[in-house]
Amino acid sequence: MDATTAAAVLVLFYGLPLLHVLLTPSAGPWRAPEGARCPFSPRVGWIVLVLLLGPVGWLMFVTRRRKRAGA
After folding, report:
1. To the nearest 10°, the Cα dihedral for 23, 17, 48, 42?
2. Which of 21, 25, 28, 67 might form a disulfide with 42, Cβ 3.0–4.6 angstroms?
3. Is there a contact between 38 and 44 (Cβ–Cβ < 8 Å)?
4. pTM score, two decimals?
């Protein structure tokens, strides 16, 4: 594998999913909720998962089920 292909794989499978989690508003707030025992916000948690798991972490983010207020 040459350097160009390796860079393309890194950008495609790690950079773009990470950018998606950073920029999407549905990832949650940047700050932890008041009274939370964990210092990390939901968005930071998703960023860590995508960094550690790569495409699998991003698939977890995309396919997650969110609770709806009306349900």
Report:
1. 40
2. 28
3. no
4. 0.79
